[in-house]
Automatic annotation (TrEMBL):
Predominant cellular place of this UniProt entry's protein: membrane
Organism expressing this protein natively: Plutella xylostella
Coiled coil: none
Taxonomic lineage from the root: Eukaryota, Metazoa, Ecdysozoa, Arthropoda, Hexapoda
PANTHER family noted in UniProt: SOLUTE CARRIER FAMILY 22 MEMBER
Name by which UniProt lists this protein: Uncharacterized protein
Subcellular location: Membrane
SUPFAM superfamilies: MFS general substrate transporter
């Protein structure tokens, strides 16, 4: 309940939970959607998994050097763009490339959200925030298979529906304070004042 007791922490908790949901929804959805694209299903899935594994190493310099909000926006907008373009070129080899790039961006956004949650919420509610965010990501991942099935009704519907949440949450992350390089918070008071201090500086 401490996540929702005060206005600033409550706002951060709601926005972060939506970001977690979007990451789970998009990442697991794309992982399943890749298998339905043109070409051999086993090759497509293997390519997707291999490139995502390699792309995961990009998260190390990403977290070390870049600011959280613009990085999250770039990753989500790139993922969303790939999916919107994918909706227009189903049945081509390029579609596999777009889906793989989208998966890599979604995966790195997932890693970033883990780190950002630790930085935004103080120690007294950090584990609760991570648990709540993880639960919301599972909600997204549970919805994803049903969205994949919608391609039976219209081939462009699934990629478009997967493209919308990262686009929306990429914009919503601007509500959150920038946390790159800050000292980890320990008290609820520090968590409540985090965004307010940014507004004054």
């Amino acid at each position: 309940m401490d996540l929702f007791r005060t206005p600033n922490i409550r706002k951060n908790a709601i926005v972060m939970s939506l970001m977690w949901t979007s990451c789970g929804y998009c990442f697991y959805g794309l992982a399943q959607f890749t298998g339905s694209l043109s070409g051999d299903i086993f090759i497509n899935v293997a390519i997707n998994a291999s490139v995502t594994y390699i792309g995961g190493f990009l998260s190390i310099p990403m977290l070390k050097w870049f600011r959280r909000r613009p990085t999250y926006m770039v990753l989500n907008f790139t993922c969303s763009l790939c999916l919107f373009v994918l909706a227009t070129c189903r049945g081509t080899t390029f579609a596999v490339v777009l889906a793989t790039l989208g998966t890599v961006c979604s995966y790195n956004a997932f890693v970033l959200v883990y780190m950002q949650t630790n930085e935004i919420f103080p120690t007294v509610v950090r584990s609760a925030a991570l648990g709540f965010g993880s639960m919301m990501a599972r909600v997204g991942s549970m919805l994803a298979p049903f969205i994949v099935l919608l391609e039976d009704f219209n081939p462009w519907l699934s990629p478009v529906l997967f493209a919308i949440p990262p686009l929306v949450t990429g914009i919503m992350c601007l509500i959150l304070p920038e946390t790159k390089g800050i000292e980890l918070l320990t008290t609820l008071e520090q968590g409540e004042n985090l965004g307010k201090m940014d507004d004054k500086t």
